[in-house]
Amino acid sequence: MNYKRLGASALMVPEIGLGTWRYTGGPEPLRRGVELGANLIDTAEMYRTEAAVGEAIAGIRDKVIVATKVLGSNLRYDEVLKAAEKSLRLLAVDKIDLYQIHWPNPRVPIAETMRAMDRLVSDGSVEHVGVSNFSVDEMREAQAAMPNVPIVSNQILYNLRRRSAERDVIPYCRRNDITVIAYSPLHEGALAGDRGGRIRRALGRNRDNEVLEEIAGEVGKTVAQIALNWVADQEGVIAIPKSNSVDRTEANCAASGWSLTTDQRGALERTFPI
């Protein structure tokens, strides 16, 4: 597993972590992922999987980077503090390694929310602060409201079929030492492939799918591993695919530790344009 620095912090995170949106796999897939080096587990208040993550990391807490998120509807000062307290309890930890604002909320002044995040860092409940689904302007405003605590990450939708973040969000993050955490890196499973490593038949046969399968054949990997590697091998970007099985978790982790060629990346990017 390859690792990257989380924002401007000293914390190193895996380029492929473990997502838990709609997670139903129990402890074993998460624990296996940690064994393979995918030791960042991302959850959220909204996902209702924090307790499942807490169960999975019991006894291995010191090996895991725990990331969770506060709901966009809970961004008032007191609400943020209460949400963090609840997340700590469900996760059965005494500190959240990365606490993220799940969605911006225009009805709540960002300064009020960031004041609460600053407080959580000051009192030791949170180690690092991140955001999710924030635009460039929203990131600027959030950081200006919390000058003493760096925003280390922005979790966004990003995959071969959803590349619009390359226009502004990803360049801004790179310039400002903000790690991009790509959720749905397999396009909600559409790029996950079947058991033979091919694009699912439901997507039909077209040139886009054929290019992915051709490159997978060249590299000796599955289409899912090609799609994940394309995301996670980029500067300042990590991916957090979700898997409910040990086998798929192992396959996802095997998407790290190697690189596509420049020609292969170019072929993918021409096939799946912004």
From TrEMBL:
Residues 15-268 form the NADP-dependent oxidoreductase domain. GO terms for molecular function: oxidoreductase activity. SUPFAM superfamilies: NAD(P)-linked oxidoreductase. CDD domains: AKR_AKR3F1-like. It holds the Pfam family Aldo_ket_red. InterPro entries: AKR, Aldo/ket_reductase_CS, NAD(P)_OxRdtase_dom_sf, NADP_OxRdtase_dom. This is Uncharacterized protein YeaE. The lineage of its organism: Eukaryota, Metazoa, Porifera, Demospongiae, Heteroscleromorpha.
